[in-house]
Amino acid sequence: MSEELEHVQCLIIGSGPAGYTAAIYAARADLKPVMYTGMEPGGQLTQTTEVDNFPGYPTGITGPEMMEDFRKQAERFGTDIRFGYASSVDFSSLPHKVVIDDIKTITADTVIISTGATAKWLGLPSEGKYNGFGVSACAVCDGFFFKGQDVAIVGAGDTAAEEATYLAKLCKKVYMLVRRDEFRASKAMVHRVLNTPNIEVIYNTETKEILGNGKNVTGVRVVNNQTGAESDLDVEGFFVAIGHKPNTDIFKGQLDMDDTGYLKTVPGSTLTNVEGVFASGDVQDSYYRQAVTAAGSGCMAALDAERYLAAKEHDVKVVS
Questions:
Q1: Cα gap 266→300, rounded to integer Å
Q2: Do residues 26 and 302 make contact, with C-beta atoms less than 8 angstroms apart?
Q3: Helix, strand, coil fractions of the chain, as percent rounded to 5
């Protein structure tokens, strides 16, 4: 069987806010973008219920609905949106080669990577059951819904400490569940947590079960990993802050990454270390991780790709 081959000007891998925004700008610039959505079209936001902090939606919107709006807008300008995932890449020469679903090879003059990052979870069945109904992996996104209520957060690093202090401004009480007898966070962040009156740190503690009434979270069952003693905490919200994993495995050895796997880009741009390859959204942003910042960097990636192609075309004309 002969291998399928196709050449495109602009290939977009991933379909969250970054990917769709890149598609809108690339399509309007007549780059005729082809997007492969990945196995979760719309990305992390499709797992979110209410989105209240994205500009332009004064009454809020659900994550899946918002991603559907993004998709329709990208299609309106001519983006070729396809379901499929990038299984391997070869960025060693131009044009770049990307294999889709292990069977089809796309060659591309430019590649925009918007594969995002995946929140790490504890792996409890109840965590999945109540995800979006009291369970969240983003305090900045969802903390507002728990104003004046009691919540718990699990984690011991800088992100967990930062999110706990953020929640403390909104919530009546924040239980911070730390697995060991100490934090992994920086001293400054630990100091901030310990000096916030409505944060109660519970050390040597692991989550056994998230409790609920079938609709929403009503509490969390914890176990002391030294004594084995179990206890229940009455909370309406449960936040998981044990880190994110960027979806960059297929780019290892091809693109520069930091120690945790996030793609490195030239500051103030979406340029990677490889000519014609750009990275936008959570795949290169371990700090903000918001839909609106991802969308902004998607715009940047499309503009960077457009300017790259224009410069290449100019160089060819000058040489000829």
A1: 12
A2: yes
A3: 30, 30, 40
- What tens digit of pLDDT does each residue of 96-125 get? 999 999 999 999 999 999 999 988 899 999
171 carries an active-site annotation? no
Alpha-carbon distances of 319 from 95, 98, 286, rounded to whole Å: 19, 29, 41
Q: How many CB atoms lie within 10 A of CB 46?
A: 17
Which tokens hold the place of 140?
A: 């900045």
- Condensed to tens digits (0 to 9), the pLDDT of residues 55-105 reads 999 998 988 999 999 999 999 999 999 999 999 999 999 999 999 999 999
Q: 141, 150, 171, 304: which one is catalytic? A: 141
Name the DSSP class of 131.
Answer: B
Domain architecture of the chain: domains with CATH: 4-118+244-319 (3.50.50.60), 121-240 (3.50.50.60)
213: buried, middle or exposed (CB in 10 Å: 19+, 13-18, 0-12)? exposed
Q: Which of 30, 80, 102, 142 is catalytic?
A: 142
Q: Annotated catalytic, 141?
A: yes
Is-contact 26 5, C-beta < 8 A? no
Catalytic-role residue among 10, 138, 171, 285: 138
Phi-psi region of 43 (alpha: psi -120 to 50; beta: other; left: phi over 0): left
List C-alpha distances in Å: 82 to 55, 68, 207, 317.
27, 14, 40, 33
